């Protein structure tokens, strides 16, 4: 019996190395121009698939239930594309969103794009999104470092990642990504009082343009920001936003307009911090608005308190690790001299 132990260990070692011997895959990420602001990646022979954190499968128009599609990207060392890679993936038949040929579902499911990259490429089921505010951002599927140029000798921005925040599954059957804000939300360092406040459920979505707050959280949150901002720069609201400001009266900084900081205080003590660059949307040349909106629907148990939207994730590296079941993210990168549009897409060598 004792003899079988080393064999088992060796076998396990072989299996675990085999599971991660491939190279991660890199793709460009582009932000759509419409008000829906979908983020797409040219994974289908150069044609765009919508990146959707809440969708459990790859979908494409077809007849029947599922089909096989060929997807392509480049292998990467985290700094440049290395070589083109094409692979067969299983897709579910569904109409394509406008402006795209299908959806690359990124949610927690064995049929998702990251899960199929992990199984076909023998890489980790983990991915890093660097959503651009303009220009071309990047995503890497399969783990590893993530570099933004210039300069060429910079350290990987993955060194700026927060500790992993545990992913939670508060809604049975919902394949999306959720974490728990055990200490609620603070504005300018002061906790926003929410009635019945226990932990708040926070979801992530790449298909809503701006963060949505459930009405019982939205009202005290907006009131607290309004109070912290004061009224000297306030102007008429521009839908869908409630708080808008004369942007010539706001101070621009590397972190965006200098406005009260929002801290979503997550489980384990990590803050998802939202500085001006991720909180103030420039709606026209003279006006910037606080880009948090009220979610539709009730205050019932099935609605997350907060859903972080695309705008709040732009120019941060956001890593969803399905193997470790964690979320991690960097601070707002322009404050560190980087932007998600700085990935070096020139092939190395
Ligand atoms: C791979 O990278 C090269 C160089 O950037 C690019 O021209 C090509 O379109 C990429 N291929 C895919 C499938 O993304
Ligand atoms: C998180 O944010 C709160 C409120 O702004 C602050 O008091 C706390 O020190 C922050 N924690 C960390 C680890 O930065
Ligand atoms: C981009 O990568 C190429 C290939 O490694 C390199 O020659 C070039 O200097 C890099 N550009 C920047 C701006 O770092």
Automatic annotation (TrEMBL):
Residues 1-330 form the Peptidase A1 domain. Residues 1-22 form the signal peptide. GO terms for molecular function: aspartic-type endopeptidase activity. Coiled coil: none annotated. Keywords: Signal. Gene3D superfamilies: Acid Proteases. One of its GO terms (biological process) is proteolysis. This is Peptidase A1 domain-containing protein. It comes from Triticum aestivum.
